[in-house]
Design goal:
Helices cover 35% and strands 19% of the residues. The protein contains 10 helices and 9 strands. The strands form 2 sheets. It has a 7-stranded mixed β-sheet with strand order 4-3-2-5-6-9-7. A two-stranded antiparallel sheet has the order 1-8. The protein is elongated and about 65 Å long. About 3% of the residues have low confidence.
């Protein structure tokens, strides 16, 4: 596919063009013939074509009509199923109706990376793994550890659902047009269901959001709508700490305690 396509800012388009980086990413994904795989935002096909060389079939989700037309022209439906539309609204569960686990890959647009990650988290029980290229700053937040500047709501909510590893960085020069930031490759593997022990995932999300809503304030202030002094004693957490000091398990323990209080 030729590269005579103007990248569109509204879609957050930066097209991967460095062949060495592309090869390195494909090797990190390790696609196998029988895999059920979907690529988000195939763009000009930099990753699409090498993926298809190793897969029996590939699904892609693309919103740009011009790129969809290019993909349809270049590949037959026997090789490639194109799902036209917004990945934020796409039902990834529809690809695993027969129970085969899904592998998800893509160069995620910087402007909607966080909403897409939260959307995909809803399908964790149907996914084998996910490998994405994202802005490095976002990846550092995803894998951030308690007590660090990067650790926050994104860290806790994704680490609750996934084991994640930052694999390697991708420089701006690997793209056309070149973004102003460094990118990173991240691998996400769903945690076993038995390890995800929150009684109410939505409540966990509310508590984590509150805890990080005002980062400089202590839990005594940020969680006052959920916990009093006796509750802090019951869950074994110092109310004088800030949210960034708590582990994922700490937040789960708080959410489960609050959930039982309201029954």
């Amino acid at each position: 596919m030729t590269e005579q396509h103007q990248a569109r800012k509204r879609f957050g388009q930066n097209f991967l063009s460095d062949k060495n980086i592309i090869y390195k990413i494909i090797e990190a994904i390790r696609p196998a013939a029988g895999d059920r795989m979907v690529e988000i935002g195939p763009g000009l096909g930099a990753m699409t074509e090498p993926l298809m060389e190793r897969l029996d079939h590939l699904h892609v989700v693309e919103i740009d009509r011009d790129l969809i037309a290019r993909l349809k022209e270049a590949h037959s439906p026997d090789q490639l199923t194109i799902h036209e539309g917004d990945a934020l609204k796409f039902d990834f569960g529809s690809l695993v109706a027969d129970g085969a686990p899904l592998r998800v890959v893509g160069n995620l647009p910087y402007n909607i990376s966080t909403p897409i990650l939260f959307h995909l988290a809803d399908y964790a029980d149907k996914v084998k793994d996910m490998t994405f290229m994202l802005q490095k700053e976002v990846v550092m937040r995803m894998v951030g550890e308690p007590g660090t500047e990067e650790y926050g709501r994104l860290s806790v909510m994704l680490q609750y659902r996934f084991n994640m590893r930052r694999m390697f960085d991708v420089p701006p020069g690997a793209f056309r047009p070149a973004p102003k930031v460094m990118s990173s490759i991240v691998r996400m593997v769903p945690r076993p269901v038995a390890e995800c022990t929150a009684d109410d995932y939505a409540l966990l999300g509310k508590i984590v959001t509150a805890a990080f809503g005002q980062r400089r304030k202590t839990l005594r202030n940020t969680l006052r709508d959920y916990l009093d002094e006796a509750d802090f004693v019951a869950v074994g957490i110092d109310p004088g700490l800030r949210g960034e000091r708590l582990s994922v398990d700490d937040f789960v323990r708080i959410a489960n305690h609050v959930g039982k209080k309201s029954i």
